[in-house]
Amino acid sequence: MGNKTLTETSKFLSYILRHKPQAIGITLDNEGWVDVSALIEGAARHGRALDETLIREVVVGNDKKRFSLSSDGARIRAAQGHSTTQVNLQHVQKVPPERLYHGTASRFLESIRRQGLIPGSRHHVHLSDNPDTARAVGKRYGTPVILNIRAQDMHQQGHRFFQADNGVWLVEHVPMDFISETTIAL
Ligand code: HQG
To answer: What residue range is the signal peptide (predicted)?
Structure first.
């Protein structure tokens, strides 16, 4: 299987399983799951050939573990990053480490200073446990900036943290008070 096919299929699955399942006439359950067979049939009706082998390769080979298969392999979901209102993932609530990191682009800083970090079109603000990942995430939108978040302090003051299947940390909002340091990543 070529890398190009895998990347394209991964993008297609992200679009369908996070944002627009209705684009191929499928429905996700509350936890984001859909039968692999329904996904394959829906995709076929809309001119995209998928099969179980290709789907499995994308799930297993994905650098960020974007997708999970159920233990019997019959169902699939995106691990996080949803915008569709069909889904309300019950992520595991967890005590965060002392620090977490958020990567953003310098052009968003002014607005972040006013509002803190907000989820935008996703359901949560996404945080990572290491600055390197944060830098890579921020780079997608421009000159990357890494924000250091005092996650433990937030937790102690009642903010609930969750961790997705793939390790990404999620929180509803990060007020500016907990963003203690801004490092321009060169
Ligand atoms: C910014 C990718 C202005 C925020 C990545 C970010 C990640 C604000 C953008 C995952 C703001 C939202 C998530 C405020 C936050 N004013 N801008 N008050 N608060 N922002 O893509 O965190 O490839 O929705 O800094 O690897 O960048 O999709 O979120 O720049 O894990 O699997 O608003 O997406 O993974 O952008 O990325 P996004 P994100 P996948």
So the answer is: none
